[in-house]
Description:
Blueprint: E1 6-11, H1 22-41, E2 45-52, H2 57-66, H3 70-88, E3 94-97, H4 101-116, E4 121-130, E5 135-136, E6 142-145, E7 154-155, E8 172-176, E9 184-193, H5 199-208, H6 215-227, E10 232-233, E11 235-237, E12 252-254, H7 256-274, H8 276-279, H9 283-286, E13 291-296, H10 302-316, E14 331-333, E15 336-337, H11 348-354, H12 359-368, E16 376-378, H13 380-410, H14 422-443, H15 447-468, H16 470-476, H17 478-498, H18 504-514, H19 548-572, H20 581-585, E17 589-599, E18 607-612, E19 617-622, E20 637-641, E21 647-649, E22 652-654, E23 657-658, E24 660-662, E25 668-670, E26 682-683
Parallel strand pairs: 1-2, 1-13, 2-3, 14-16
Antiparallel strand pairs: 4-5, 4-9, 6-7, 6-8, 9-10, 11-12, 14-15, 17-18, 17-20, 17-26, 18-19, 20-23, 21-22, 24-25
Helix pairs in contact: 2-3, 4-7, 5-6, 6-10, 7-10, 12-13, 13-15, 13-17, 14-15, 14-17, 15-17, 16-17, 17-18
Amino acid sequence: MKNFKRTLITSALPYANGPVHIGHLAGVYVPADIYARYLRLKGEEVAFIGGSDEHGVPITLKAKKEGIAPQDVVDKYHGMIKDSFEKFGISFDVYSRTTSKIHHETASEIFKTLYDKGAFIEQTSEQFYDVEANQFLADRYITGTCPKCNYEKAYGDQCESCGSTLNATDLIDPKSVLSGNKPVMKETKHWFLPLDQYEPWLREWILEEHKEWKPNVYGQCKSWIDGGLNPRAVTRDLDWGVPVPIEGAEGKVLYVWFDAPIGYISNTKELCINEPAKFGKWEKWWKDPETKMVHFIGKDNIVFHCIIFPVILKAEGSFILPENVPANEFLNLEGDKISTSRNWAVWLHEYLIDFPGKEDVLKYTLTANAPETKDNDFTWKDFQTRNNSELVAILGNFVNRALVLTDKYYNGEVPECGELTEYDKNALNEITNLKLEVEKAIDTFHFREALKNAMELARLGNKYLADMEPWKVVKTDPERVKTIMNVALQITANLTIVFEPFLPFTMTKLRGLMNLDKFDWLELGRTDLIAADHKINTPELLFEIIEDEAIQAQVDKLLATKKANELEEVIANPVKENIEYEDFAKMDIRVGTIIAAEKVAKTKKLLKLTIDTGIDQRTVVSGIAEYFEPQKIIGQQVSLLMNLAPKTLKGIESQGMILMAENADGSLVFVTPSTKIKEGAEIR
């Protein structure tokens, strides 16, 4: 494995149209912060880059909804996000934004370089235009009826109901979000990045040279590449963003997915301008092959950071490429998907108010329960249990006993270590063994495993004191107790190192209690970290019990949110107009059984189902992949609309539609007989 001189760490730029929630933290910012703190503790040269993503259609829609300018929207949320990160202790070296002057200049320069190299394809096409608003309509500015499932609120790029990827021109009865009018078609010109031309290089670079990437990352990249890549537009008709810096592109901006990752570069430039003595010139971070670049992102950003952004850098020609992209899966909340639109989230700025001084408790819980290999779930009960049964009862308990006994027996002075027994030596040697396990886990981005091994050191300390029973031995062999307590305090001092990347606020407090300076990672495992006669300060508890009342208050808040969402759902979905019986009678709905199911390539929501109808076996494409694993629904009986006209979805002919009921949170439930029934039975 190659040795690098320095590490550039980037974390996905949060979108500045709302605050940060625990899903963002668990997926991106907590693991990135652990990695940055760990490398700094090892004395390595690190730049940890963050910033807000402030361009794109959702920003303009938010501004329109609130009756303010887009700049006002991003100013509000950029400030809120930055403040929350600082208070939570995410240790960015820089946290900037994509509306900065230096970002606009950098994004324009990279676009112009690629343009001058002939790296883009220029295409003219007809797109929707709102005559009243006097502007072209981006995909999210258009709604209409989905041609695949007849959902009436589909967007111009995707149907939220069936998951189909759409073109705006596919929509039935399209309407402009701006005026509510039907748009017209008007010719416009855009520039495209020909991803297909880079397929052979991507196949070699990712699929052959980076087989060590996490399986979820590698697998998604392979699926995209094997499915065939297409040219992707890098410009849009919009007045909010980085203006396209060439003649004939007036009224156009760089597509947000093109300019946002360039924010890592522009923010690095800003850092180097502000702190040249520490970080030097920006080029060494982005153009020196001795720099290791690691992107921390969520799984929804894998394609942008593993395929599209690397192609941009490759086309430019002078930049390094990411060495690793350790993307996490999604974190759910109390069994439901986190949703900003439904306010189903634990917001960071609210947590910091509701649980003051407990930043590390949330960091610990999110790391211990991190969605590293699959989606995981945050519950308030688990949060309470992690605090009370692990942080308080294991880590806090050992530290408190070690410090309190030292204060009681020796007036807070570290006793001199006498002759070590074999048991003492084994306990101290275990510190080095655990150090190696923690290093191995962090170096391979398994932060959950690393934290577990760090906690093993606290468990070791507890077991050591429980086995040695100094409170009993002090009555019969006071000299032996000095050695026992010295060993316990050496373990405690080592805890300040091993937990520093994970619990930085708590370790600052512990070092204060022990009257110690900060140690380097290399000193982890030393058995003489704290000298005899060293004076410790008055013991205090590291953590406090979180009572049921505090947890219930958070649960009640979520329940109130759920009730409000259910009411809004009822209001938003009134009973449709009456139809005649003859219209209903035309529908042929029968019971069928799913006998095969598989995901549809390059889609998030579609499953290809084979259904035994009792009459035949037919293929149905259904947008239920987010809620059901294919292998788990084989044998499931369904209600199938048999005589729906066939539709081709992603190259697959769908021969019917299964009926589903939708909960207020958007989750789906099969409409099925209460008892098993023969396939082909009619539903009347």
